[in-house]
Amino acid sequence: MCGIFAILNILANAQDLRRKALSLSKCLRHRGPDWSGIYVCDKAILCHERLGIVDPSGGAQPLIDETGTIALTVNGEIYNHKTLRDSLSGTYKFKTGSDCEPILYLYKEHGYKCASMLDGDFCFVLYNTTNGDYMAARDPIGICPLYYGKNPDGSVWFASELKSLKADVEQFELFPPGHFYSPSTGITRYFEPIWRNPSTIPTQSPTLVDLRKALEEAVIKRMMTDVPYGVLLSGGLDSSLVASIACRHAKMRVEDNEKSKAWWPQIHSFSIGLENAPDLRAAEEAAKFLGTIHHTFNFTVQDGLDAIRDVIWHLETYDMTTIRASTPMYFLSRKIKSLGVKMVLSGEGADEIFGGYLYFDKAPNSAEFHAETIRRINNLHYFDCLRANKSTMAWGLEARVPFLDADFLQTAMSFNPEDKIHWDSDKKRRMEKYVLRKAFDTPEDPYLPNSILWRQKEQFSDGVGYGWIDAIKDLAEKEVSDADYAKRSELYPLDTPTSKEAFMQRRTFEELFPEKACRGTVTNWVPTWGSSSDPSGRVQGVHLSSTIAQNN
Asked: Exposure pattern of 28-41 as b/e (b: 16+ CB <10 Å)?
């Protein structure tokens, strides 16, 4: 993944904006420290800050088609690029081995439909000099961030992060996932699977084998890389399953269907937490079982508190649960990058798909449980996708998330919600994500030890050490006076903070991003059911002392 920036529909002299564009693109260089590129024509400027993962020596961007008339800047990975390349190579001459280059020729063949033909995590901006047409698109779930805006002169601006737009664009907003934009269509949805409709409730379920195969395929395709990679391993179910599948396929190169030996056959795994954190012990147990080269890192409470302002600058949010979880991930990413690793696999998304958050235990019925999973998936780009991308890309590290693979989502969201809810037909409670655990409960060829497979959910901000959240709350008590907090509705009439911690994070965000439109790009993560609005799993009343379910 990389950083992209573009100005389109330029009515003035584009060359006069070149220096401005380079300066604003530079704000994204943490996302792409390997190389910078720029394309300028009469009415468009496309910039690119590159993190080279596939074809690192030859895939520099912006990419230009063989006729020199279409330019493209992309942030992301296209996992079906070889299939697309094969289908186009008889007609077009490719210049690089980049996984993004097929987009140029898909556009020439299929126009705006090209976005729906991509299997990957992406944002891109494309400009056609022959007719002044252009388009931008974002992946179905919003794994890659993108913002866009317009100025009174008619120019349209795009950027991977808010910081490149906020001071120079009068009106800007979050670019919605699963949509494309063109001057003739405006914002248009291209991703509309059946499962997105909460009134369409599945009555039957795929088999557990189908679910297991779908996740295996999602992990395997994300092992596509020409640089060293690893896995984030918290010791929880989701990251451990991803790591387990990766280990099973690490010896051979997935790019040629495992016909040749892998360039990096030994998987490295990484975890972080306060001293003696629950996640660290579980991660070490999982790593020992899987045989990874495991790296454990610690941070102190003071380290975390000192970093919050920088974290908010990179995340571009004031949502307190995202900030809580992102701070240790921000530290971990820096450590990983220092070891020469440029890509990691991660476990985001499973809790939204399977109702893994402990507040789901209070869902009134299976229909509402199902609707809530859809709502959580649709909002992932505000929370876990944002955290996984921006916490890592702050240091030029790419995170890939197999659970959010479009094909896996289609399988997982086809389950009857009665199979996902936290109680069985006899109203006996069963562990969250039960169906996912059962899919990988294969004693004859175990993916994980039972102590990990049936370990109860720990939200990342809890699992790194319970003292971390308590310390943030204590800091907020010191930093936010009772007098200031009493004026919270006056200071922040929209999305008013409901705790001193939320007030503290909001105040920092407003200092860093004072422009009015910035606030409109943020949403708060709040449990839908339960007596507490605090996102910590510990306050949901379902945090069991045992990590082994009785019904495993």
From this structure: bebbbbbebbbbbe
